[in-house]
């Protein structure tokens, strides 16, 4: 059985050429940090704006709710595109600092919050799709608004943990 320390060492060894290139280049570090934050800004910006609109739409007339639900569905693509950039750049930055990040409890808390964020995003998408079929169902609106509140909380927690991680 492989131990956590052996796994971390194996990953660090495999990533050593990338880690060396990354640590020797301020341009790479700056570029990846910019792309990571840009992806985060795009994904979180669209998501939190949609969450706010979700909280407001629940109390709107049915006709406005129908328009809102079609617009909500359209926000998933830019959120997913931003998240894809966040994952790609995050993986690259993690591989550049395996020895410090993989043993860090804050790193794993952030990853856990990120997984919860993704799961909640899937819940939001399903709730929105169900509402498009049953626009007047109050229980479905409650599920969607609760998921929107969780989304804002999870975006904030993930951002906070990422900030703590860079300061550690």
What are the SSEs and their pairings?
Elements: H1 4-23, H2 26-57, H3 62-95, H4 98-101, H5 105-133, H6 138-167
Provide a descriptive summary of the structure in words.
The chain is mainly alpha-helical. Helix content is 89%, strand content 0%. The chain contains 6 helices and no strands. It has helices at 4-23, 26-57, 62-95, 98-101, 105-133, 138-167. α2 packs antiparallel against α3 (62-95), α2 runs antiparallel to α6 and α3 runs antiparallel to α5. 23% of the residues are buried. The model has no long low-confidence stretch (mean pLDDT 93).
Helix content: over 70%
The chain-level mean pLDDT equals 93
Q: Are there runs of 5+ residues with pLDDT below 50, and where? A: none
Shape: elongated
The secondary-structure class comes to: mainly alpha
Order of helices and strands: HHHHHH
Amount of beta strand:
under 5%
Number of helices: 6
The major sheet is characterized as:
none
How many strands appear in the DSSP assignment? Answer: 0
Q: What is the oligomeric state here? A: single chain
Gyration radius over CA: 19 Å
Question: What does this entry show, briefly?
Answer:
By secondary structure, this protein is an all-alpha fold. The chain is built from six helices and no strands.
What attributes does this structure have?
168 residues, mainly alpha, elongated
């Amino acid at each position: 059985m492989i131990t956590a320390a052996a796994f971390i060492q194996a990953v660090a060894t495999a990533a050593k050429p990338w880690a060396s290139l990354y640590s020797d280049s301020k341009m790479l570090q700056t570029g990846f940090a910019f792309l990571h934050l840009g992806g985060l800004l795009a994904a979180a910006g669209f998501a939190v704006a949609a969450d706010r609109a979700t909280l407001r739409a629940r109390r709107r007339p049915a006709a406005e709710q129908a328009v809102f639900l079609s617009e909500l569905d359209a926000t998933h693509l830019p959120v997913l595109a931003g998240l894809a950039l966040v994952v790609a750049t995050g993986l690259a930055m993690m591989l550049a600092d395996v020895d410090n990040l993989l043993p860090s409890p804050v790193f794993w808390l952030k990853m856990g919050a990120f997984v919860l964020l993704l799961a909640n995003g899937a819940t939001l998408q399903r709730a929105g799709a169900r509402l498009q079929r049953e626009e007047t169902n109050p229980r479905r609106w409650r599920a969607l608004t609760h998921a929107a509140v969780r989304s804002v909380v999870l975006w904030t927690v993930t951002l906070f943990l990422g900030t703590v991680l860079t300061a550690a």
